[in-house]
Structure formats: C-alpha cells, structure tokens
Design brief:
Elements (H helix, E strand, L loop, with lengths): L1 H21 L4 E5 L12 E10 L2 E9 L5 E8 L6 E4 L6 E8 L2 E8 L2 E10 L5 E9 L5 E10 L1
Antiparallel strand pairs: 1-2, 1-10, 2-3, 3-4, 4-5, 5-6, 6-7, 7-8, 8-9, 9-10
Length: 153
C-alpha cells in the first residue's frame, strides 16, 4: 500500500512538471504599469500566478479594483476552451482558456452563461514578458479595451 502511494505521488509530481514545462504561461507574472494601457477605474491584476494543480492549471490573480480595494481571484482548469468555475470575482463566475499556439492563448470570461469579455494572451518569444489584451463590457455597459503587460518573475 505504501509503495502505491509513493508511486501515485511521483506520477502526480511528474504530471505537474510536464504541465509547467509544456506552457510558457506557467510561473509568476507581475504587472508592468509603465508598458500597460489600463483605463482609469479599471481593475488592475498586479500579480498573476499559473501553477500545476494535478492534471489541471491553477491561476491565482491578486490586484486592486476600481476603488483601490484588494482583489483575489482563482481559477483552476485546463487550456482546452471549456468553462471552469472562477472564484473571488463578483462580476464573473466562469472562465475558459484555449491554447492557440505555443505562445498564444485566448480566454473568455462569463457570468451566468453570458460572455462579459475576451482576452488574448501572448507570451514573448524570450518568455520574459506577456501581453494580455482584453475587450469587455463594464458595469455601465460600455465597451472597454485593456492592454496589460506583465514581466516574468
């Protein structure tokens, strides 16, 4: 029984390592405000962390909302285009990511099945930065566009 538990632990660790090497998205990313174009009053995702979680990926986002209050959002899923639950965001409850190519991903954020916004994430060829372009509808019903640049930590 002990040998089985050890084997399962090793397999889980190896699966996590495979995921982390398989995607340049993995790791910790910090917002570079100087290079970003974030509209006044928009939420800022200051730190984004992608890490292996079993055979899935966990994304943890810490930032500030329009009033400057701290935010903490979590998503665990796969880059397969399917919806997975999002927690910590009062305006959204699901998010789906899909891999377009080795360095490009697309995301869709939803609330009660309705698409609120779309994102295109591009990791630089050197893997040191990534750019997230998001188009969404804000609480007032206006279309917004945010370009956030992150540096890998």
């Amino acid at each position: 029984m002990k040998m089985r538990n050890v084997a399962l632990t090793i397999l889980t660790v190896l699966a996590g390592l495979a995921l982390s090497f398989a995607s340049p998205m993995m790791g910790t990313w910090k917002l570079n405000e100087e290079k970003s174009k974030i509209p006044a009053g928009a939420t800022k995702n200051n730190t984004v962390v992608y890490e292996a979680s079993g055979d899935s990926i966990k994304c943890t986002i810490d930032g500030t909302d329009a009033q400057g209050k701290p935010t903490h959002v979590e998503w665990t899923g796969k880059f397969d285009g399917k919806d997975y639950p999002l927690t910590g965001d009062a305006t959204a409850d699901m998010r789906a990511y899909k891999k377009v190519n080795d360095r490009t991903y697309e995301g869709v954020t939803k609330k009660d099945g309705k698409v609120l916004g779309t994102s295109r994430i591009v990791v630089a060829a050197d893997g040191k930065s990534r750019t997230v372009t998001t188009e969404a509808t804000n609480a007032e019903g206006k279309k917004t566009k945010t370009v956030a640049v992150y540096d890998k930590q």
